[in-house]
Amino acid sequence: MNLAKLKVGINYTALILLSITMIFPFIWMFMISIKPKSEIYSGKFFPTTFHFDNYIRLFTDTNILFYLWNSIYVSLIIIVIQIVSAILAAYVFATFQKRWVKFCFALILATYMLPSAITYIPSFILLSEVNLLDTHMGYIFSESISIFAIFFLRQAFIQVPKDVVHAAKLDGAGHLRLIFTVYIPYCKNAIASLVLITFIYSYNNYMWPSLLIKSEENMFVTIGLRRLFMSQAGYGMDFPLAMAACAVSLVPMLLLLAIFSKRIIHSMANLYVNK
């Protein structure tokens, strides 16, 4: 009994230490954001005085709210398009057992193995041909299909009990009714996880938007943070303002994580149990 308690104590201690290691950079970032400039290189972890005016300057002297709005609304549109297309494709790949369907699924997975940078040049040329460069619509169009989302939901749809599907078919359910009354309700936790993953990817994406977006009014938060860092924090001039911007940029992802955390845990638990 004592050995079991000791093992549990060691496990909890290790988890606490790992958690502290993971969140320490974020705590350090927040501490820098509330320090005066004179204390940045003092070596002290806690500031002598708390300067929350760095956040006031962030909202009054920069375009951070504009960058956040662009990233959030574009990411939400991408989530809707990717989830809808992934649900339809995953249903086909999970339910149709024909050879050509399996071949198409294998071909799609093969394209997922290619580095994303390979697609930048052809995508850039394609968007330039249709005059969608430096536009949100062009970025949304280029991110409308996700191979990962299709694969992720296909694996979740496979786990739907066959008896439930057969019962729905006997009740006269067609393909769309099966999707909306059987597959989506059964896989709602997996879909919630995919929503969070898609948002994080789209919200944090930097390389492709930096090549596509050039005008100030269309910039996303990742590009805006880099511009802010180079203009305000270059050579250590205003690190507190840059760190305040980084802290504010985390708020949408933390809110989304708080909303979907339970469903994500249930989704991961189901995947683990069904292995």
What does this structure look like?
It is found in: Cell membrane. The two termini are 31 Å apart. The mean pLDDT is 85. This protein has a single domain, classed as MetI-like fold (Orthogonal Bundle), CATH 1.10.3720. 23% of the residues are buried. The chain has 14 helices and no strands. With 275 residues, it is mostly helical.
| Helix-residue proportion | over 70%
> What's the multimeric state?
single chain
List the domain count as a whole number: 1
Beta content = under 5%
CATH architecture: Orthogonal Bundle
What ranges have pLDDT less than 50 throughout 5 or more consecutive residues? Answer: none
Overall 3D shape: globular
Radius of gyration: 23 Å
| CATH structural fold name | MetI-like fold
CATH class placement: Mainly Alpha
For the sheet with most strands, the description reads: none
What is the end-to-end distance? 31 Å
Reading the helices and strands in chain order gives HHHHHHHHHHHHHH
Global mean pLDDT: 85
CATH superfamily: MetI-like
Number of helices: 14
Domain ABC transmembrane type-1: 68-260
Protein name: Sugar ABC transporter permease
Pfam family, one: BPD_transp_1
InterPro entries: MetI-like, MetI-like_sf
Q: Topology of this structure?
A:
Layout lengths: L1 H32 L19 H9 L2 H32 L3 H14 L7 H10 L6 H7 L4 H12 L3 H9 L4 H12 L1 H17 L2 H6 L8 H12 L6 H11 L1 H23 L2
Protein name: Sugar ABC transporter permease
Subcellular location: Cell membrane
Keywords: Cell membrane, Membrane, Transmembrane, Transmembrane helix, Transport
List keywords for this structure.
mainly alpha; 275 residues; membrane; MetI-like fold; transmembrane; 14 helices; transmembrane helix; transport; MetI-like_sf
